[in-house]
Design a protein that fits this description.
- The protein is an alpha+beta fold and 199 residues long.
- The protein folds into two domains: 115 residues, Aspartate Aminotransferase, domain 1 (Alpha-Beta Complex); 62 residues, no CATH class.
- It has a six-stranded antiparallel sheet.
Length: 199
């Protein structure tokens, strides 16, 4: 099944929104965007970045602007679907009986394309997990400043790997054995799994 056939099938499956989805799709197909299917729904990309998505639900349907936070929204059509959680995504929501102004839609799409060309993008924040040191590691650092400095010079990810490697051993004898094995690796600035990378 081609992408076009998949999108057509999606529209037919959402019979309640069939007419509206078809009209919106017609406008999208006149733009430089590429029609794709992402997460089982129509999505429209520019330079491999998703700019617009369509989705039909029981009580509403929506046009999703993936970097909609940068749109001027001169016609007050957009809303944040999850206030406080969603940062970049904005939704233009439709309920039964609503119609679409194709010129307004086209202007929003064109603005989204221009924003993409300008590199406007809000990337999701990655929450970094703090590195929790096992008491055995803390004790080793107290006794060996070089080891502590070498550990601190590692990336947070590598630090976490070592900390979890020690903490995951149930018996103290295994923890001590693991510490002895990883000490030279830490001093050399290597990560726990470096030898398996780039294989």
């Amino acid at each position: 099944m081609t992408t076009s056939e998949k999108v057509t099938a999606y529209i037919h499956k959402n019979s309640k929104w069939n007419e509206l989805l078809t009209e919106i799709r017609e406008v999208l197909l006149t733009t430089p965007l590429t029609e794709e299917v992402k997460w089982g729904a129509p999505a429209y990309t520019f330079n491999k970045k998703i700019l617009v998505g369509l989705a039909g639900f029981k009580n509403h349907m929506g046009i999703w602007f993936h970097q909609g936070v940068f749109l001027k929204d001169e016609h007050n059509k957009l809303q944040n679907a999850q206030e406080g959680k969603t940062k970049a995504l904005r939704q233009w929501r439709f309920e039964e009986g609503d119609t679409i102004n194709k010129d307004v839609l086209r202007s929003y799409i064109n603005e989204a394309i221009e924003n993409c060309k300008a590199g406007k993008e809000l990337k999701p924040e990655r929450k970094k997990k703090p590195v929790t040191l096992h008491p055995l590691l803390e004790d080793a650092f107290t006794k060996n400043k070089k080891l502590k400095d070498a550990f601190n010079a590692l990336t947070p990810g590598k630090q976490r790997e070592y900390a979890e490697h020690i903490a995951s051993a149930k018996r103290e004898s295994t923890q001590i054995s693991r510490l002895q094995k990883i000490t030279p690796m830490i001093l050399e600035g290597k990560g726990l799994h470096d030898k398996y990378k780039n294989c």
